[in-house]
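New here. Invent one.

***
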Amino acid sequence: MATPESLGRLKDVWESCKAQDDQKAALIEELFKTIENQSRRLEISNSLLDQAQKEKWELIHKQLSVPFQGRPINKTQFLDEFVRQGTAGGKRAAQALKEAIKAQWPAYSRRAIITHIYANMRGLGATYEGNGVVSSLLDWYAFVSGFNIVDPMFDYLDAGSGKECADYKIKTVFQHHFDNVHCRRIILGASADNGYARLLGKYAGDKDSQERIALIEGPSFARELKEIADQFETCSFVNVFASQTLHKPSFPRISLPTIQPIPDNGFRPQKRRRSTSPIEASPILRNKNGDRVDPPLPVFSNEAYQQVRGWKLCNNFYLLGKCAAPGTCIHDHEKVLTSDQKDALRSICRGLPCRNGLKCDDPHCIAGHSCRYPVCVRPDCRFPPEMHGVDTKAVSQPNEYDFRTNWPPAWN
């Protein structure tokens, strides 16, 4: 039988156990409250992080792609007022295009705009030159350089001289961006080319595809494009692109006088090399640093340039009036060049650097004394570094009778 002392001890033990249980319960309850608070904070932090990530991806990866062509005939072209202003005009054209896109689609004003323009640079530049928009190819290349400077995602690129080069690149870039889920809209500028009707035809019946594609109408839509253009959103950036196509200049056919045949008297003259009078040298122009400056050439046609480039002419004979190696020269001396063709030949010769460099004082020198490109990025450029970025503003010229030559004329 339990004694009062043993019952007291049991009661004390039970009270001690009860107190420990209360402490454990309180501890567990406090732990649950802490976990709940931390879970709530983590949930809020995750929600904010998800929202920030979503906004970041929307700003960075949702894009507008603007692929279009720049080709000499029947393609979308910038307004002449931009092109003739050189570098400044290129910058203005890029900014005007960007603002026109944002005004047309305000919801995309914070999106990245990626612009691809492909052209046969030399051919298009020659067409602008032939139409009197620019005075030389240098002005055209300056415009392209200005366009590329404005935005790192704005590219005006040379597609090469092949007939389908620009078309192939445009179609490939179009498909690349269409397959990119982050690209919200593709804005295509090639309104006068029926060839793009086949590209767009496969998207014409799909509503989702139609909503992602927009067409720029510069010149009127070509017949086949016009048949499906109403299935896509169209826009006309009249403050950016010309509404008329740019055509290669045509040249009148020259009628030569009829020459009466000479009666055959049995005499057969030997073929003699055609001669021409030596050409008087022009004064040497120099800039403020004393570097030689090549005088500007008259505007010549692309047709003349292409003809002369295909002939193996004796440069000294046609430009200086005398062959440097009579009797052994293997180049052509028989053609009769027009003034247009001679100017084209001078331009070709200036593409080769003078061996005497910037200080050349040979009045008969027909080579170039500085790279003709204001911003030259060609890795294979023949001109040395010191002949790039030369100040071409002439400030003086020596007396026309005070010429000194650092090497004898080629015909001596």
